[in-house]
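Risk register update: the risk of archive-format incompatibility is retired. Evidence:
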Amino acid sequence: MTRASVHDALRRAERAGRPGLPMGRFRLSRCPGDLLPVLVNEDSGVVFDPGARIQAAAPSPDGRLVAVEVSDDGSENGRVLLADTASRKVTEVEGVAVRHARMAWDDEGLVLVDAAGRCLRVQPGEPARTLFVADAGERTTPIGVGDGVGVVVARTGGERTRLVGTDGAEILELPRVRSITAAGDTVLAVTGEELVSFRLPGPAPARCRLETLPGLPVHAQAVPGGGLVHLVRDGHSVLVRLTADGEVLVPTETVAISEQQAVRTVSGLVWARDRAWVRTESPAGAPRVLPAEEAARSTNHGPPSRLTTVTADDGAEIELVLTGEPGGATLLEVYGGFGVVDLPRFEPSVAAWCELGGLHVTARLRGGGGAGTPWHTAGQGAGKARTVADAVTVARELVRLGFTRPHRLVLAGASLGGLVAVSAALAEPGLVAGVACTAAPLDPHRFTEHPGARHWSEEFGDPGDAAVRAAMDDYSPFARAVRYPSRKWPRFLLTTFAEDSRVAPAPTDRLAEVLTARGADVVRSHRPRMGHGGNHLDSVHDFAAAVLDFALDSAHQPTGA
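Archived output:
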């Protein structure tokens, strides 16, 4: 295996591009050959290419203007541009800094929320005007509602969400809303316990209890008169259409997207051009965007993925998604946090890994959201030690079941998953051959030193709590490195990003020093022009190639480099 073959396999997979979901007459897509997503029209013609990362876009109702959030440096901090699709003139909204901006249009212009929590009215050629400032801790989301209603704003704070007009007048109050979308004059809100569909203006809302649905809701999209919901049921994606019947939201159709030997996921839903659209994909199968009624009949090219389970020591069943064939090197990817559902999305690196003869495995550990709230809470706080124990179980079971051998098994994790991967790799000598850790908060006792720490306290728990601290003392990579016997060390690739606005590099530097001093083989990498979110494809390509090279080297399959 040569280093050139890794790059060639990646380039072949990257040519698939990534189609975006429709936004009126436009899409935000990375077309084949593009290095970053660009704004394209229905015929895939480029409408606007800023030469930088686009983080969000929103077209005006008539399609003449598109508001685009652009990040210039690879971080998540952005600015807003207004692109005229007819004249191709682009103007910047001055004095407005954003971070994954929420934006919507009405006949009076653009409504957006900036990084300071200001809800702003933006009209071309005029300074932005403040409509109101969000309260501390409040999440503010503008929603464009059709049929002459305009923009309504969802203000979520505490356990309640208030829908207000742009003039501040209250329209409706709901329990705390997780997500909210609109289609025409129909709005669909997802709370912690139910789906709520209503019209503005209109009769009383129609409701459906989440517990009555056949699975865990991941995406929800309003459609006229009801909603379309993506659920994960027994590890598989299904679509459920709901229709308002008086004050009840009734499931009227259920369509399976995924099968046991052909696992696929729904990675997005949207209502545009008077129909519902769905994007489906699999780990090595490139995404496709299709009308909802065609999604079940579509297929994703590339090696199929299959679903299996292994049993933890306490009897819990851990789901695994396997892509590729056993016999070569095995890359085991872990995360297990924040209630995130580990969906089998397309990754060029997975397709390339399989082409090179490898087996890729995604493990749905506790702490994630694959089996609902109890699965998440089991891996929070002191339970984070359980997340790591699940990763160790998966590694052992992959060997016991004959899928791989320890010297051919490499763990990989990014962000919180990097912490889990390193901690699991240090559980016992000879468990794995290597571990690739990316942009991870590796010192749980000091997680507050990171820029994103204000969002992590519930997930990690309070280090001052005796049970949480005892768990951290167990699974902390620093503690495990000191306890680790000086034999059969796995190899380590520890990577951080120069433009990361969530994770600081200092803990990774400290752990690299500790591991090196203890005799481990450590590759320490700090990559420029990359951040915690989406990045330039050239940078992603080089990073992915480095990870695959490291994994092949660690799994006793030299690259020849």
